[in-house]
Amino acid sequence: MNYQQIIVGQGLAGSLLAHQLIKLNQQVLVIDNGNVHSSSRIAAGMFTPISGKRMVKSWMVDTLYPEVIATYKELENLLDVQFLNDMNIQMSFASIKEQNDFYSALNDKINKYVITETTPHQGLNAPFGAVEITHSGWLNTLLFTEAFKKYLINLNSFLQEQFDFSTLTYQNHKWHYKNHTANSVVFCQGYQNKNNPYFKHIPVIDNKGDVFKIKTTALNNQKIYKRGAYAVNLFDDVFKVGATYKWDNDDTTPTPQGYAELKDKTDVLIDGSYEVLEHVVGIRPTTKDRRPILGKHEQEQNMYLYNGLGSKGVLIAPYFSKIMADFILNNTVIDNEISTNRF
To answer: Looking at the whole model, is its pTM more than 0.85?
Structure first.
């Protein structure tokens, strides 16, 4: 069958790129192997305008946040599924020093994102007080990717299988994959990029994260709760809690060490009892400079890479998927300030 683009990988990057291309009247084929350890299926999908140990304003957030709300709301209407949770983060301080450092860093750039007068939820461990971060929330990434997969299937635009590079050839100005042809091919494989013979030299760094699913009555569904770890409400009294960060690690096996580290973080976060229902691992595709990777292969015709969204994928994917779609269709220049040239 003939398509205009073949997209390999149906995580956040592949899904949102496919959405933008379909909106531009492109016929796409998305090929995905259903990897359960991709960060798009494991992560809580949080987005926040303030992040990091020093609690600084997130990169490009004034541009990215409006795209987050507009794009995911648009997709909720398209797919008739609710997966965007636009809510404040109630963040407690771990020490007086952390509290002082935070208030000292407040300035005109981040004041609009912070509510300093807040009463900590009784189930949040907050001996040194708390603040709330606005313009925040989380995306149920598993619910979103599964709903978008069904949408693609209905368009005859989805193929679930391990991509077979040996069958990919370029002939007569077309890419051929088995019995499919396309003008271009785009790889959005996350941490599995290391197995891509065309782009494995591109520095996508594996970042392993442990995540719990817990049951507790200590918290509620009104906010995201954070103190080192985060907690988001999935349903009833069930929460997703995470995460750990282990760089250059693609081991998808949950370990006792990972469990112990995350349990310590959960104990610090929650003032109350809880039961661990599940312990899973996801692998984030990150980059050294924390900028996404958007580009074109130096030798191969009409072959592209879109990767490296990392732990902020939910925040940056809507905007950069538009940038990537425009680059593929119109060969527009991508500013190195937003995506360092690694090609």
So the answer is: yes
